Amino acid sequence: MWYEDDPTIINANLIENLDSGIDFEHQYLEPIKPSQRFFNRNFLIEKKRSYGIAGIAFHSYKNDLWSTYNYLGYDYYNGMDLELKFEPWNEWDSNAIAVNLMGSKLGYIRANDTEDVGNIMKYSKGYIAEFNNLGCPGLEHVDIYFLQEFKDKMTLPYQTDIVLTASCSSAQYKKIVKGNIGHSISFEFAFEKGKLALLTDMNSILGYISDSFIEHQCLKTHIIGYIDNARYSIKLKTIEVKLRLLMEKSVINKNYQRSYEALEKYFNSFYDADTYCIPLADLVKIVPRKSRSRSAYEPLVKYLKEYHAIQLIIES
């Protein structure tokens, strides 16, 4: 194909309708908070579709076709380029698409496929049609290779980034993940796994995570993710995927959010360390609780670790 050596174009067969079966660990890289960052994606996917050819018996080229089958074999024409042409003047079907082989009319795209093929011809960034005989007369097909463009900009008020990590020794899966960079992710609870499935826009399952926050969030508001980056460690045999989550609103407990903001002021920022220590006496002043015992703050400590990637140690 004229675009087969372009590294920016990904074959859909590599990333479409697959289930990795991988269970990811995940960590939030920053707070879930209002943000106006946007995510751009602009890339091409190579796809292939096959369609039957109707009406071969009613066109003069059938004699050449069938005699070639008899003398040179059914696969003689396989891989040859076909020319597809709209026939809006066709008295039987104004949406008809003629199939031409070596300058002669071979037949037509079947009526129930003309809309799909017409859309490929009109809207794809490029396409190639090839002849394919599946083994005997009557099974002639058109194989169409085409480029589908993904181009949009997405922004939602609440955002955060998370990183997914998993053990992975499969080089094939490394290609699958890298091929999905820029693609969108949705979430669906998989009952057989008891976890959330990460569904890509290519009808694949990138993997599974266990996260009560996202599960709860999906029930309350629109949430979508974009694969920002992916890295594979040959030495450690691990895959790392950076995912940006975008949400219409956050269902995080507002009291915890205020607690985070108060603690951030106490430490000036949360960007210079992974672990922070605070005396219980100071914590009681900053984030009052009905009980002043250490156990009263355990839910907050868990919240900070899970959704803000912060380890808080309470000192006596």
Task: Give a quick summary of the entry.
The protein has 316 residues and is of the alpha+beta class. The protein is 24% helix and 39% strand.
Structural description of this entry:
The mean pLDDT is 87. The protein contains eight helices and 17 strands. The N and C termini lie far apart (69 Å). Strands 2, 3, 10, 11, 12, 13, 14 and 15 form an eight-stranded antiparallel β-sheet that branches. A six-stranded antiparallel β-barrel has the order 4-7-6-5-8-9. By secondary structure, it is α+β, with helices and mostly antiparallel strands. It folds into three domains: 22-35 and 155-247, Alpha-Beta Plaits, CATH 3.30.70; 46-149, Alpha-Beta Plaits (2-Layer Sandwich); 254-315, no CATH class.
Helical stretch tally = 8
Order of helices and strands: EHEEEHEEEHEEEHEEEHEEHEHHE
What is the average per-residue confidence, as pLDDT, rounded to a whole number? 87
Report the top-level CATH class of the largest domain. Answer: Alpha Beta
Helical residue percent?
Answer: 10-25%
Largest sheet: 8 strands, antiparallel
Specify the CATH architecture of the largest domain: 2-Layer Sandwich
> Unreliable runs, pLDDT <50, ≥5 residues?
none
Number-wise, the strands total: 17
Number of domains: 3
- Which structural class do the helices and strands define? alpha+beta
Strand content: 35-45%
Radius of gyration: 28 Å
Termini gap = 69 Å
